[in-house]
Amino acid sequence: MNYLIVGLGNIGAEYHNTRHNMGFIVLDAWVQASNTVFSTGRYGDLAEIPFRGHKFILLKPSTYMNLSGKAVRYWMQEKNIPIERVVVLCDDLNLPFGTVRMRTSGSPGGHNGLKNIEEMLGSNAYSRIRLGIGNEYARGTQIDFVLGRLSEDELKQMENISVKVIEGIKTFVNQGAGKAMTMLNSKVAAKPEQ
């Protein structure tokens, strides 16, 4: 069975390692750990990773965040993947940095990428993993904060967070959503050893 794992973000060097690109950061770490590479396809970059008789199809949409649904819908159809085997990774302002939350459905919660995916699919019944970025910004500077780059310390922590999320997705496939949510929906990720 194929699973579509979508990391949300914006393409272009100016968005590299920004808070809004948390989904891209996790998928980049997964591809690097798997000794594979992304190839450019329609509406995004894709990589395929075999796993215990299944296949993870990793997708980084090239449509920009607020049009992500076009890429998700296209690749679901192209690879014949039902909505229950779609997992979307995105940033979340409402969670402290390092906190991870998985749900099997739900509202977009103000996230433009999730909102567009729901519009394009006509459903919110896909799994999503929200990666906390915190909300430590002054009034009126939300966009600057979201599009701001992660600090060196945060990037180090992202290594641990990425490992945790990847293991959570594998658990989702192996043991189901309940086990994956128990594993992922825990306290803030520990800081790496100095």
Describe this structure in words.
This protein has 194 residues and is α/β, with parallel strands linked by helices. 36% of the residues lie in helices and 22% in strands. The protein has helices spanning 22-33, 68-78, 112-121, 142-146, 152-175, 177-184; strands spanning 2-7, 39-41, 44-51, 54-61, 86-92, 100-103, 127-132. The chain has a 7-stranded mixed β-sheet with strand order 2-3-4-1-5-7-6. Helix 1 (22-33) packs across helix 5 and helix 5 packs antiparallel against helix 6. 37% of the residues are buried. The mean pLDDT is 92.
Descriptive terms for the model:
single chain; about 190 residues; alpha/beta; Rossmann fold; 6 helices; 7 strands; about 20% strand
Question: Which secondary structure elements does this structure contain, and how are they paired or packed?
Answer:
Elements: E1 2-7, H1 22-33, E2 39-41, E3 44-51, E4 54-61, H2 68-78, E5 86-92, E6 100-103, H3 112-121, E7 127-132, H4 142-146, H5 152-175, H6 177-184
Helix pairs in contact: 1-5, 2-3, 5-6
Query: Poorly predicted ranges (pLDDT <50, ≥5 residues)?
Result: none
Strand content: 15-25%
Give the integer mean of the pLDDT values.
92
Principal-axes shape call: globular
Counted by DSSP, the helix tally is: 6
